[in-house]
Design goal:
By secondary structure, the chain is of the alpha/beta class. Helices cover about 45% and strands about 20% of the residues. It is built from 13 helices and eleven strands.
Length: about 300
């Protein structure tokens, strides 16, 4: 299904009047409210505001995708607005925000909503599409830009719809101290290990760091630690700059591709008790899927 078929002329603004993203959201909500006066717009606005407080929906590349899953609607509504003058909000990549796509979906259709968000993200990644939107004269021309992009909404929820693309990874020569610093800085507990060609060669987790310190941890279970055993942690602190990722990383790893159905991957992750799976394209790392992201994106929205 072409992405453009989800856009209705009544819900598209070719030259939206707004100074910032919040004003743009209010403007697009008003457009929906006028077209569908029976909707509970107060409840819908509260749901969008709650979602914005959880996480800023500015995507970068000049786009924002505010959205909400709410029982106040029974089907998906999409309102799309182009700001030729630009909005004043801070953006992740410092590119001026110029296009806002507002999505409303019922709570029970997470798959279609994620697929549609993913399709808009693919549309947004081509900088020529934004230029064409800004040059478009009139609503029909805006929709034609989306149509001519050729972006489709997939029939099935795929890994590319939910994966994290900005991946923190590490190479085999890094020290355990450097790994620990990355874990702390980015608030993560596991990451892929890559070679100098960005090919995935392993994984390392905070558990691996602890195991490096407690190499004989099995024999300590159920016992009170002695001073000698506690000194093992001191030894790790002394050698953390000498031990490397290559010495302790997990090499027997599972990877996936962008076109893998999410249901299939989630099943494999549950069966193998995996918390994170690297996503590869032509053998190179392009993203990761984390179990917590499957939960947050599909259940929480």
């Amino acid at each position: 299904m072409r992405l453009s078929t989800l856009l209705s002329e009544e819900l598209v603004l070719a030259d939206m009047s707004a100074g910032n993203k919040n004003e743009a959201i209010a403007t697009l909500l008003a457009v929906i409210g006028r077209r569908f006066p029976l909707l509970d717009m107060e409840t819908i606005a509260a749901a969008i505001d709650e979602r914005e407080r959880v996480e800023n929906t500015s995507y970068g590349h000049g786009y924002a995708f505010p959205h909400a899953r709410t029982d106040a609607v029974e089907r998906m509504y999409i309102a799309f607005g182009v700001s030729k003058g630009g909005l004043s909000d801070k953006t992740p990549d410092d590119v001026t925000l110029r296009a806002v796509c507002l999505m409303l979906t019922p709570s029970n259709i997470s798959q279609l909503y994620l697929q549609t968000l993913s399709a808009f993200a693919r549309f947004a990644r081509d900088p020529q599409n934004l230029k064409r939107l800004l040059d478009a004269r009139g609503v029909a021309a805006v929709i034609e830009v989306v149509h001519q992009s050729g972006v489709n909404v997939d029939r099935e929820l795929l890994v590319r719809d939910i994966m994290v693309e900005k991946v923190i990874s590490v190479t085999t020569d890094k020290s355990l101290k450097e790994v620990a610093n990355l874990f702390y800085k980015h608030r993560i507990g596991e990451m892929p290990v890559v070679d100098d060609q960005d090919r995935v060669v392993g994984q390392i987790s905070n558990r691996d760091l602890i195991k490096a310190a407690l190499s004989d941890f099995g024999s300590m279970l159920g016992k009170s630690p002695t001073s000698d055993e506690l000194s093992i942690l001191d030894d790790l602190l002394k050698t953390q700059e000498k031990l490397t990722v290559d010495e302790i990383m997990w090499r027997d790893i599972v990877t996936t591709t962008e076109d893998t159905p999410v249901v299939r991957l989630a099943t494999a992750m549950l069966n193998a008790n995996l918390r994170m799976v690297p996503v590869v394209r032509d053998g190179k790392l392009v993203g990761v899927v984390v179990m917590s992201d499957i939960v947050s994106k599909i259940i929480r929205g």
